[in-house]
Amino acid sequence: MFLGLGCGLFLAGAELDAVLVLLGGCGAIGAATLAAAGGGRRLLAVLVETAVRSGAGK
After folding, report:
1. pLDDT tens-place values along the chain, 58 residues long
2. C-alpha dihedral over 12, 13, 16, 18, to 10 degrees?
């Protein structure tokens, strides 16, 4: 599904950077949802820390 979404957006004229950021965000949301639903608080904390560090580096 994500491969089709990314290809469709790229072919419609979206910049590659924007497509990759969108797909990365979708993956992060999915991982956070699974971690929260599974009670993986430690995994969720690692994901949040990684997101904060990657955002601070820009």
Report:
1. 777 888 898 899 999 888 888 888 888 888 778 777 777 777 778 778 888 887 665 5
2. -90
